[in-house]
Amino acid sequence: MTLDRTRPLFVRLLLLAFLVLVPPVGLLSFGAMDEFARGLVPEMDKKAVTVGHDLAASIERAVGFGIPIASLQGMEDFFAPVLAANPEIRYLAVTDPSGAILFLSGAGREALEPYFSVADFGAAGAEHPKSIIGNFINLTQSLTVKGSDVGHLHVGIDHDYVRDRLLEITVDIGVVTLVSLLVAVEILLFVVAANVTGPMRVVGKVVDKVRRGDFTAICGGGSDDEVGRFVHRFNAAIRRADDLFRRLDAYIDEVRSAHFDKSVVERVADIDSRVRFLFRFSRTGQPEVVTERQATDIRLPLFLFVFAEEISRSFMPLYISSLYAPIEGLSREMVIAIPIAVFMLVIALASPSAALATARLGSRRVFLAGLIPAVIGFLMTALAHNVYDFILWRAVTATGYAVITMACQGYISQASQQQNRTQGLGVYVGAVLTASVCGTGIGGVLAERVGYRTTFVIAALLALVAGMLIYRLVAAAQPQGRDRAPRKRELLGLLRNWRFSALVLFAAIPSKIALTGFLFFLVPLALTQDRGIALGDVARMMMLYPVAVVLLSPLAARLADRTGWKAGLVAVGGVIGGAGMLLPMLAPGLEMIALAIVLLGLSHGLSASPQLAMIPDVCWIECRNMGQTNVLAFLRLAERVGSVAGPLLAAALIPLHGQEGAIVALGWLVLGMSVVFALLSFAYGSGPHIETELAE
Amino acid sequence: MEKIGQTSLAAMSGGLPPPRPVRWSLARKVSLALISILLFTLLVAGFFAYFKFESVYSSQVQSRYSFMVFTIKKRVEDSLNLGLSLRQLRQVQDILEHEKQRDAQVLAVEVYDHRGEVLFDTDRGAIGGKVSDALVEAARGNPSQAFGLADEDTLIVGLPLVNALGKVEGGVVLRYSAVYVEQGVGGLLLELAKAVGVYLAIFAVVALAGLYLLFGRVGRKLAGMEHALTEVLSVGGHAVPEAGGGEFEEHFAEFVDKTREAIDHIRDATDEVGRLDRLA
Amino acid sequence: MRRLAGLVLALLMLAGGSPAAVAADPPAKPFRIYMALWRGWEEAAQGFKDYFANQDIPVELIVRDAGQDKAKLKDFVAEARRLNVDLVFTWGTTVTEEMLGRHDAVDPARHITDIPAVFAIVSQPLGGVVPSLSSSGRNITGTTYLVPPETQANLIQSYRPLSRLGVVYIPLERNALVAIEEMGAIGEKSGFTLETRAVDLVDGKPNPASIAGKVAELKTAGIDFLYIPPDTFLNVNRDLLTGAALELGIPSFAVGENAVLTSKAMFGGVYRYYTVGQLTAYKAEQILVHKVRPADIAIDAPRRLSIIINMPVVRRLGIYPPMKLLGLAEVFDPAEGGVK
Predict the structure, then answer these.
(1) C149-270+306-339 in CATH: which number?
(2) Is residue A280 over pLDDT 50?
(3) What's the ipTM?
């Protein structure tokens, strides 16, 4: 086991976390299901008795009119609506006093006949004798006409029905378990990185120096755990060497300055230069303290903050719709779409200044400053009265969101200058995606239980926790004036590079349109309003998107690296996403929408990282002139046009095509744009493009 | 990591300061984190399980009562179809009272007209009064779809009454005790709380054991390296990397040797300078 | 029978007694409705009146009974105009055609045209007072009260599978021939054939004595059901007709309640006049309260049919109704205490 790398220790920890978290939740839900069955079955019995009572009254009435019980007509039609309206009732049967089956709906005769023919219902004594036949619970009601027993009515409850209802509960608990595992991953990753691997990596660096005779550095940090103790002792060893050297140095100085014998001075000078030749010591008089900023430091706060924002993902349009009041000249759908679009717009507008502020003031301060609008935004969104103040508070939240995400990106890019750039990006994307999985999944279930408003309050609390972590754990970072900020004209000049503009217009923008228009806006609306699906289920369906992205992204990144076929992957991704949204056209089922969501995840998982990876090739010159970070930032900014347009487009399509029709229509749009990109992608070629330079 | 060479009990610290005490061991820190997550997970899972059960259970109870209401609705509408207005259906009062008797949890069954005036009620004193606007509104909904409402400590399930013209004449509602539903699900809450407590205790122990095992190794390894460092510095000899150790261990061994070498060298140099100094 | 009559009477009294009891907010101004009746106050008129009471719509009813005298109707037209009422209600084919005019012969001088009107209990409004049931095309609307033949056929088929439907008819009546033709066409669509036998004529008049023989002929032809259309002659001789069917073990279906309630038809389907009156009032409400143009209101029948099953006949035949039908039907069983 190596201590300076996260993975080996972390894998073991994860295994342990799995072992500690999953079995108790499993046992808990297993026990709960048992308990549920015990509570639910008597209720179902009562229902069956109520239904049986009503049916028996009708049968007794008919028999009372002089119709022989065996000659009752149309019993199938009589039973059918009852069976249809009460899914827990599996069969209905009438037997004569001897137990022979006269009428039976919903189950096979052979399953019940042997039982009915031997059972003695009269002698059971109870008013509604209950018995278990195979998988059924059979409740018997005697049919009495004018005091004489004419037969029995049997209501059969399906035991599987109970089990199926209870299984739904395990789905909820499954989501909770998944989310807490992911949260555990984030927290453990943080704990391990901050306490073990981070300091040990610094130790490794210092070790590397020392073994080459360089005693200029000692490790920073000093927690009161085993690692801290080790570091303390480790530093002590270096300090000891340093100490001895200082004493020697002083001694030599003394000898050199005070000694009268030139040869001694010379020989002492030799010794001095020999020692200095063999070993290096700090010039400042004591070893320099080495600390290291890691991208993972900010991962947990970032995760928590994005979690807070994503929590409202599955019900945002529904919440707006609950605040809805007609606005002159706008359709209902448009009114719902506007706050979502405004949110995206404000992020786009605030991001560049937020990035600038991060560069000037450092990530920590900017993150903490961003929390103020974010938390106020969440809290006031919870208290919103109408659409107008809702839009205002969402815009405030968006400002916070832009500031905080920019601060995190700044921190990560600075930290990863010391490490690996792609790894740094992975930290950011990883945190955002897991937060998206957790937030979407838990938010829907939560809102279903405690309501929209309380859920926003929880979001505010999460954001506060994120702020606390930043405040306590992230060291005040020194501002960094890295790349000079490019002028606007330069950035717009980027658009003259046709490969770049095509990438923005036909790949980046449609993919954002699909995300915000389809997933964020249409899916919650179409599923809950057209189909009356419970919010928790909607959220679980929406969760499929980040899950698909998470599973696919690393694969796509590797594929892009290996094959170099980046434009192709982007094109294929776009086409898959657009085509997926056409699926609801084929069949009206829920599965089609779910599949479309998965395909969108697949699409973005495939195309997102190749899209970024293309930039250095596509904009080779521009990257050199104004820095890759700035070009990437501009791409991000430009694609937000799609984020803003998505919900507005979708809202405009609903009155024309209906909600599910709008999905398909949006799908055609996205597919069309992606096809254009696919055609253009053949002209992209590979490797860096420098013709722009030649042209200018 | 071990060290070779002669061992001496003298000057174990090798001139190093005394080791710093471990106040918060890694195992304790991570246990705290993991057990908090476990507690949180169990609480949220229990919370969701409880609410889900509550919704399944109460909808099961409601479906039973909505069946009863449906039966009443059919009978009232059949009578309406005979050509009488709702308020003239005197027999409805008997139907309501009969249905109420069948179930002890039923608090009241009432029929009101489209304006909300109570026409028949098992609680005869309420006849002539008004039902809440929410009920009047609910009766205007889908005539074959039962509606459910809550009113303080009673739960209400009802259906609109429709005449032969397809026009809503009013509604029939059944009030049943909310306490009944609460009792049905209350037992579960206790069971869940107990289970959460028990599993938390058991798996906290598992977590502690696992983490002490895991970080015990880390701690031992660090202590081993620390020990080797101290020994080599104070006594001398060479540090050799632990068998099977990685690059880090090799480098650390080199570090130890280099440090020792530096200390020895500087000491020798100091001695030499001293000798030269005295020589004169 | 007497018990049943008593029940109906009691219901009527109940119905009549209550409207005044309805507490209503003091109306700004009641709607004035001119009710022109043909043979006195009966159930359709009562249903019409009760509807307004139940819905809390203030109305002032000006009730005029022609007493089956066509000559009075001219005066009614004049009076309605003079009183400048808000709406006119006409009862029956004669009153309606005389006061509102047939659709192809409206004379503003003789007929009411400027005041909106609703009609009820008109046997054949289509082609009579209106050109189409979806719209009168003028200032009137109304209701039908005869069960459409399709509904009748459906009802019979819901009792038991039908392959041959028998009917005895009067060859003199053009209406009967039209009805039979219509039923035959429906049979072609839904898979049964119609067996018809005309009653013998003696001196140009139908002979009741021949009815039993005709039923026997139908039995030989293999019918599953005897269909009794609405017809005055058959109504008068209903005991002969239904008795013969019962003797031969043929189930019978009657359009109208008399053959079931006071004779031996097995079951029947009818729209109650009371319900028809209510529906007519509903349409009046659309015109008066909601200001819908009468031409925009379709002419139709109530949605729910009253089905009556004669239980003693059912027991004698041993042909039992399906549970669903039994649940919907009113069961006539004198031994068990009348209609249930």
Answers:
(1) 3.40.50.2300
(2) yes
(3) 0.76
